[in-house]
Amino acid sequence: MTRTIKEQLDPIFRPRSVAIVGASNNPERWGHSTLFCVLNWSQFRGEVYPINPKEDVIQGVKAYQSVLDVPGPIDLAVIVVNAAQALEAFRQCVEKKVGGAVIITAGFAEIGPQGAELQRELTRLSRESGIRFVGPNCMGMWTSAARLNLCFWNVVKPGPTAFVSQSGTMGDYLFDVSQAKGYGFAKFVSSGNQASLDVCDYLDYLADDEDTKVVALYLEGVKDGRRFLEVARKATARKPVLAYKMGHTEAGARAAASHTASLTGSTHLFDAACKQAGVLVCDHMLEMFDFAEALAHQPLPSGNRIAIASGGGGFCVVTAEACAKIGLEIPLLDKETQGAILQHVREFSPQPLNPVDLIARKSHVDYAAAIEVLAKQDYIDGIVIMPPYGGFHRTSSPESMKGLVEACSMIADIPRKYKKPVITFAMREYKETAMYEILKRGEIPFFESPETCARAMKALCSYAEHRRR
Predict the structure, then answer these.
(1) Can you list the domains of the chain with their CATH numbers?
(2) Cis peptide, bond prior to residue 136, ω within 30 of zero
């Protein structure tokens, strides 16, 4: 009987035992680094079996000559020997009936005909045995479900985003930058040459993965466009899917072919298929994770009518321009709404038309109250703001500090209370303040440019429109 995609991939993403084929005591070997990651930079609590015919103990753990010598079952085999040995190692994994594998080894279809033949044999064994594998020619993976790290990061923050990358080094870079921004991940997969599992399989699995709220894809090519469209439709009916695809130029397509043996196909057809399936195609790879952060944590807007509020006019101007350029509406506030906001500002305040310049707010609490007035309006679907600025200093009065905390608490509650997204612009140092931590309680995303705030809100609106259709 054919196993479901969950049954095929659970041993990879939720393993209870892991064998490292090619584990080593030599720090210069990849097998040393991989085992070190599992033992020291993971929180994996299952059985770990180093495999090396020349060693009895590796990094303090009993080693075995082959997977066939391991006394217990193996859910996941991680293969880090050379290409010719990798084929034989996988044959032994088939005989052992392991649950799944990650083949990190390079030297397959990406190098030419000889490597391609080895890869075809791997694929044949996988198909006949039903044992699926990640790779070959990949950087490994991370899964929060098992707290298993095969990717050389000493700290990984769990979170709601699953990231599938056809490039190991680019995936490594993007993952690292996103972690530095404080974003968390449910899964990371460096898919490599996709000889057994491709992006369609991962997307099919992640559509139902309870740990994943958003899927982000770095693609160099899609082998089966029709199936991609099918599984993407399934996934986007349940959660947002974002894609950044290479191969738009002849140079990029040529590089992709030599890198992961990818066929890039028609960019126009791919973009059209993504739009039809509800996949959000990103023009800037780093912003893909900014959008994922917003989509993972904020409620979906009912439309594309946006309010903008700030403690200074410059942010209002730039954000309004950025929103208008990408098709978001900035509706003029009605007289009643303007009157309600004017109660929270001084008499010399600019007229609150939208954007709303709150530089003359009466207090921190008034600042938040004016933003809440915007959230109450039926003709406002989402809000982009600059957060309340200020700090706890020796000269600050207790009333001022208390007001700042209360203001941030009021704003943090807006998405839950009014079911409307709030996107925030703040300079980098704001993340060092207590106010940032209070606002993050409401899972409000922070971005470092008004343009990114606008595009993140556009992503929310676009996915919401897809779901409504």
Answers:
(1) 1-137 (3.40.50.720), 139-297 (3.40.50.261), 299-468 (3.40.50.261)
(2) yes
